[in-house]
Amino acid sequence: MSDQKEAFRKIYELLPPQGEAAFAFLLHNGYYNALPHLAKDPKWNSYLPLNIEEYPPESHTKNYTSLHYKKMVEDLGFIVLYCKQVQNVTTFPSDEIYTNFLYSLCELPPFIPDDERKQFKKDLFTYTLKQNGRNTDGTPVDRSTTLELVIKKVC
User: What is this structure's pTM?
Assistant: First the structure.
C-alpha cells in the first residue's frame, strides 16, 4: 500500500464511533533487502518490472518503527489501545524449505521464463540469506520486524 496514512484515514471514516480495528503487518524483512539486488543482477534485470527497486514498502525503506505509526494514527484522531513492534526470528530446518517458503511469497515468478525459474528460486534464496544469515548450526533463518496495532475511534 503506497499511502498508509490515507488508508488509516479511510478506516477512521468507516469505523463507527468507539469502533476498534486491529492490524498486524511487516515493517522490515531481509526479503525486502534482497529484491533490489535481484533487480540489479544482469541475469534477472531484463525480466523484472522497472519499478521493482521501489517495491519494498516505505516502512522498510525509511526504517519506520512503532512510534511512527502510533503518532500517525493519533494525529488522525485514533486512541492507541495497543502498539508493539516485534522482532521475529524463524528458523527453517533446511535450505530447501526456506527456499520454497521465500518463493511462495515472491510475486516475481510470473515475470521469469519457466525454464529459468529454478535458478531464480536459488538466487532469491541466496540474496535473502545474505541479509538474514544462518544459525550457529547452519540452518537458515528469516528475520523480520512486525507491528501489532489496535486502535479506537474516539468520537
Answer: 0.78
